[in-house]
Amino acid sequence: MRLLFTGLLVLFLLIQYPLWMGRGGWFEVMDMRDEIAQQRLTNDGLRARNEAMQAEVEDLRTGTEAAEERARADLGLMHRSEVFVQILPNDNGAQTPARP
Protein backbone atom coordinates (compact mmCIF):
# COMPACT_ATOMS: atom_id res chain seq x y z
CA MET A 1 0.00 0.00 0.00
CA ARG A 2 2.82 2.35 0.87
CA LEU A 3 4.55 1.60 -2.46
CA LEU A 4 1.33 2.36 -4.35
CA PHE A 5 0.93 5.68 -2.52
CA THR A 6 4.56 6.64 -3.23
CA GLY A 7 4.16 5.71 -6.90
CA LEU A 8 0.97 7.77 -7.23
CA LEU A 9 2.63 10.73 -5.47
CA VAL A 10 5.61 10.61 -7.83
CA LEU A 11 3.27 10.35 -10.82
CA PHE A 12 1.25 13.29 -9.53
CA LEU A 13 4.41 15.40 -9.15
CA LEU A 14 5.57 14.47 -12.63
CA ILE A 15 2.25 15.60 -14.04
CA GLN A 16 2.36 18.89 -12.09
CA TYR A 17 5.86 19.90 -13.25
CA PRO A 18 4.87 20.86 -16.83
CA LEU A 19 1.79 22.66 -15.53
CA TRP A 20 3.83 24.98 -13.32
CA MET A 21 7.32 25.18 -14.79
CA GLY A 22 7.17 23.75 -18.30
CA ARG A 23 6.68 25.57 -21.57
CA GLY A 24 3.37 27.42 -21.37
CA GLY A 25 3.16 26.82 -17.62
CA TRP A 26 1.70 29.15 -15.05
CA PHE A 27 4.95 30.97 -14.32
CA GLU A 28 5.50 31.68 -18.00
CA VAL A 29 1.90 32.84 -18.37
CA MET A 30 2.31 35.28 -15.47
CA ASP A 31 5.53 36.64 -16.98
CA MET A 32 3.81 37.07 -20.34
CA ARG A 33 0.91 38.95 -18.71
CA ASP A 34 3.39 41.37 -17.15
CA GLU A 35 5.12 41.86 -20.51
CA ILE A 36 1.78 42.46 -22.22
CA ALA A 37 0.80 45.07 -19.63
CA GLN A 38 4.14 46.85 -20.08
CA GLN A 39 3.82 46.75 -23.87
CA ARG A 40 0.30 48.19 -23.66
CA LEU A 41 1.61 51.13 -21.62
CA THR A 42 4.35 51.71 -24.18
CA ASN A 43 1.86 51.48 -27.03
CA ASP A 44 -0.50 53.96 -25.35
CA GLY A 45 2.31 56.47 -24.97
CA LEU A 46 3.37 56.06 -28.59
CA ARG A 47 -0.24 56.32 -29.75
CA ALA A 48 -0.64 59.63 -27.88
CA ARG A 49 2.59 60.92 -29.42
CA ASN A 50 1.42 59.90 -32.89
CA GLU A 51 -1.91 61.66 -32.41
CA ALA A 52 -0.14 64.85 -31.31
CA MET A 53 2.14 64.69 -34.34
CA GLN A 54 -0.83 64.08 -36.62
CA ALA A 55 -2.60 67.13 -35.18
CA GLU A 56 0.53 69.21 -35.75
CA VAL A 57 0.79 68.00 -39.35
CA GLU A 58 -2.86 68.89 -39.90
CA ASP A 59 -2.25 72.38 -38.46
CA LEU A 60 0.72 72.86 -40.76
CA ARG A 61 -1.33 71.79 -43.78
CA THR A 62 -4.40 73.92 -43.12
CA GLY A 63 -3.20 77.16 -41.55
CA THR A 64 -0.33 79.58 -41.57
CA GLU A 65 -0.23 80.23 -37.81
CA ALA A 66 1.42 76.91 -37.04
CA ALA A 67 4.03 77.44 -39.76
CA GLU A 68 4.79 80.95 -38.46
CA GLU A 69 5.11 79.68 -34.90
CA ARG A 70 7.43 76.91 -36.04
CA ALA A 71 9.57 79.35 -38.05
CA ARG A 72 9.87 81.66 -35.03
CA ALA A 73 10.75 78.92 -32.56
CA ASP A 74 12.99 76.67 -34.65
CA LEU A 75 14.57 79.04 -37.18
CA GLY A 76 14.58 82.33 -35.28
CA LEU A 77 12.60 84.14 -37.98
CA MET A 78 10.29 87.07 -37.36
CA HIS A 79 7.33 88.78 -39.02
CA ARG A 80 7.69 92.02 -40.99
CA SER A 81 5.83 94.05 -38.38
CA GLU A 82 7.94 92.75 -35.48
CA VAL A 83 11.01 94.47 -34.04
CA PHE A 84 14.10 92.48 -33.08
CA VAL A 85 15.46 93.20 -29.61
CA GLN A 86 18.49 91.43 -28.21
CA ILE A 87 19.40 91.72 -24.55
CA LEU A 88 22.99 90.89 -23.75
CA PRO A 89 23.85 89.46 -20.35
CA ASN A 90 25.78 91.67 -17.95
CA ASP A 91 29.15 90.04 -17.27
CA ASN A 92 30.12 91.48 -13.89
CA GLY A 93 33.05 89.11 -13.53
CA ALA A 94 34.59 89.95 -16.91
CA GLN A 95 37.62 92.19 -17.01
CA THR A 96 37.32 95.48 -18.83
CA PRO A 97 40.06 96.39 -21.28
CA ALA A 98 42.64 98.84 -20.02
CA ARG A 99 42.26 102.39 -21.35
CA PRO A 100 45.32 104.08 -22.72
From TrEMBL:
<keyword id="KW-0132">Cell division</keyword>
<feature type="topological domain" description="Periplasmic">
    <location>
        <begin position="22"/>
        <end position="100"/>
    </location>
</feature>
<keyword id="KW-0131">Cell cycle</keyword>
<feature type="topological domain" description="Cytoplasmic">
    <location>
        <begin position="1"/>
        <end position="3"/>
    </location>
</feature>
<dbReference type="GO" id="GO:0005886">
    <property type="term" value="C:plasma membrane"/>
</dbReference>
<keyword id="KW-0472">Membrane</keyword>
<keyword id="KW-0175">Coiled coil</keyword>
<protein>
    <recommendedName>
        <fullName>Cell division protein FtsB</fullName>
    </recommendedName>
</protein>
<dbReference type="GO" id="GO:0043093">
    <property type="term" value="P:FtsZ-dependent cytokinesis"/>
</dbReference>
<dbReference type="GO" id="GO:0030428">
    <property type="term" value="C:cell septum"/>
</dbReference>
<feature type="coiled-coil region">
    <location>
        <begin position="36"/>
        <end position="70"/>
    </location>
</feature>
<comment type="subunit">
    <text>Part of a complex composed of FtsB, FtsL and FtsQ.</text>
</comment>
<comment type="function">
    <text>Essential cell division protein. May link together the upstream cell division proteins, which are predominantly cytoplasmic, with the downstream cell division proteins, which are predominantly periplasmic.</text>
</comment>
<dbReference type="InterPro" id="IPR023081">
    <property type="entry name" value="Cell_div_FtsB"/>
</dbReference>
<dbReference type="Pfam" id="PF04977">
    <property type="entry name" value="DivIC"/>
</dbReference>
<comment type="similarity">
    <text>Belongs to the FtsB family.</text>
</comment>
<keyword id="KW-1133">Transmembrane helix</keyword>
<dbReference type="InterPro" id="IPR007060">
    <property type="entry name" value="FtsL/DivIC"/>
</dbReference>
<dbReference type="GO" id="GO:0032153">
    <property type="term" value="C:cell division site"/>
</dbReference>
<keyword id="KW-1003">Cell membrane</keyword>
<keyword id="KW-0997">Cell inner membrane</keyword>
<keyword id="KW-0812">Transmembrane</keyword>
